[in-house]
Amino acid sequence: MLRVRRKSEREPTTALINIVFLMLIFFLVAGTLAVPLDGDLTLVRTAELERTAPGDALVVHADGRMSFRGQVIGAPSDYLARLDAENRERVRIVPDAELPAIELVAIGRALRRAGAEAVVIVTERGLE
């Protein structure tokens, strides 16, 4: 008696290649959507933080000067004046690691007094 050999069916690799290609395109697009931060900024390190993109964040440098999208901001209230009502609900600050905590707290309080409902500090872990 002869045994009948069954052919093993091959898995189609075209679908897998398509998925990998789509993931590559997604990561290329997602990586270019965020507004770049200032190059001389050293971020604070934390272990756990909610991951939020800092595109509309107030950048506070080590010397205390503030910038928003590359433009110098004089006061926290000037920053809030540039935001629409929806973005004022949750304001993000990206501080330099060398910024004294007292100054960071003072800026957070000034933002709250100017009308921000919540102030979130974005750190290095949050940008990953």
From TrEMBL:
Q: Which UniProt keywords apply?
A: Cell membrane, Membrane, Protein transport, Transmembrane, Transmembrane helix, Transport
**InterPro entries reported in the protein's UniProt record:** ExbD (IPR003400)
Provide the membrane topology annotation.
Answer: Single-pass membrane protein; Single-pass type II membrane protein
**GO molecular-function term, one example from the UniProt record:** transmembrane transporter activity
Mention one GO biological process in which this protein takes part, according to its record. protein transport
Localization recorded for this chain is: Cell membrane
- Alphabetized Pfam families for the sequence: ExbD
The portions of this protein that span the membrane are 12-35
A Gene Ontology cellular component where this protein is annotated is: plasma membrane
Indicate the family of this protein. Belongs to the ExbD/TolR family.
Protein's name in the database:
Biopolymer transporter ExbD
> What species is this protein from?
Thalassococcus profundi
